[in-house]
Amino acid sequence: MAKDPVRVLVTGAAGQIGYALVPMIARGVMLGPDQPVILHMLDIEPAAMALNGVKMELIDAAFPLLRGVVATTDVAEACKDVNIAVMVGGFPRKEGMERKDVMSKNVSIYKAQASALEQYAAPDCKVLVVANPANTNALILKEFAPSIPEKNITCLTRLDHNRALGQISERINIHVSEVKNVIIWGNHSSTQYPDVNHATVIPTNGEEKSVREAIANDNWLNTEFITTVQQRGAAIIKARKLSSALSAASAACDHIRDWVLGTPKGTWVSMGVYSDGSYGIQPGIIYSFPVTCEKGQWSIVQGLKIDEFSREKMDATAKELMEEKTLAYSCLN
């Protein structure tokens, strides 16, 4: 029996990330090669023509899994009955803008989109926020869509997770699939903490060992590795003169695929989720933790040993998230 199509919403669909993401979804990268999809694409009025152009291209690509395309500037129409929402649309920080200006613009966008999801989306809708400040945008969305379960609202730190895997595989010249269980703690910002203390490498022809042992350079792991992952987005903007769209779209597919279809046994991934107090991180913020997923549910990996170096970095990024939360709430009032 053919599966029923899943309705997937992409906001900001005419933008850079949206343009990279929608063909991946239509090709089955996000939900698997046997799962039909109906794409809902939302963008703002000035992008309506470009959005229609993306719709034309999706039709022209003749994707076998694509059962329909809704391209609209109407948020109610876009959210109608969606099962998965990937929130890429947001207000980008422009030169000379204060953090508070960006925050107040995004708070009003995410408050409005939360209300539309609350009213029109499928009751079990899974939400992934990509637009920055991703953690705080997700928190605002959670506040204003109270009927969507808090476990269904997440933000993207899988891009940082994948960047960390990439840096390690490049450093020791092994395939990226042979590295696992890095962790991104905290905020999707330059305070995030990429942690390799529990990560391992399994070369195809050898036995499993810790990343620290394989790299044998704690100084690099505690300094340059961390800053490279933290600053990677800025480095790509400098090189490409545009932000990382391809890798962000790919990471969004990874995030949803693992969430819906499950993580491989013995492997965890990083997701920004609503803190329940695990690892001493105060509840009430969306914070990136290591998680495993099964049957469409994520759970935070428990019982990992945290050393002093890690504790300090984990607390610093939590502090930044608390400050962002305060700033966001002041914009609401």
TrEMBL record:
What are the catalytic residues? 188
Name-wise, this protein is: Malate dehydrogenase
Organism domain of life: Eukaryota
GO term, biological process aspect, one = tricarboxylic acid cycle
What organism is listed for this UniProt entry?
A: Durio zibethinus
Any idea where the Lactate/malate dehydrogenase N-terminal domain is? 6-153
The record places domain Lactate/malate dehydrogenase C-terminal at 157-326
Q: Show the InterPro entries listed in the entry.
A: L-lactate/malate_DH, Lactate/malate_DH_C, Lactate/malate_DH_N, Lactate_DH/Glyco_Ohase_4_C, Malate_DH_AS, Malate_DH_NAD-dep_euk, Malate_DH_type2, NAD(P)-bd_dom_sf
